[in-house]
Amino acid sequence: MTGVTAFELETVVALVRAQRARTVVIGHGREAAPVAEAFARAWDGTVLAVVGWPEVAASWLRQARRFTAGEPDAWVVAGEARGWAGMSERLRRSTGWDPGRTYGFAGTAGAVAIAPPGTLEGMRGAGRDGTVWRIGRNVIFRESSVTCQESRAIWQDSHATFQESRVAFQDSREESPQEQRS
Q1: Mean pLDDT, all residues of the chain
Q2: First to last CA, the chain
């Protein structure tokens, strides 16, 4: 596992923030501990736990229980595909873990090819270049060529336009009864 890129880290943090998560649990394969530490330093919310797991294990049950014990708003994972595939399979079979609330770094995306069908469906994450990906049923979708940062800016612009339209509409409704009285 190589280190995390600035683009990748920024995008994963932005994805979790966009979910409005306040609490996270960070999970990682043994080799990805530095990536997990980088996310913990960048995260401005609460980290409930940091759980490491081996790339190969008999069951991953102990780690899966620790990973889901805190009932976080989101889970963030880093590591190699092989270890994450095994861990995610255990999570699906033995806990209330939701891949739709899980965000991963580039190395975790390849687990979709190893894990049982549907295990990771809904998980999102970032490529090393900061592009956003989402896992479907045994396939990875790149979420267009728009980076997370650009996507957030587009959302903020459209939200501001909506708010302005809403205020203008409310103002026009308040003026209408007065105009009718005249």
Answers
A1: 83
A2: 74
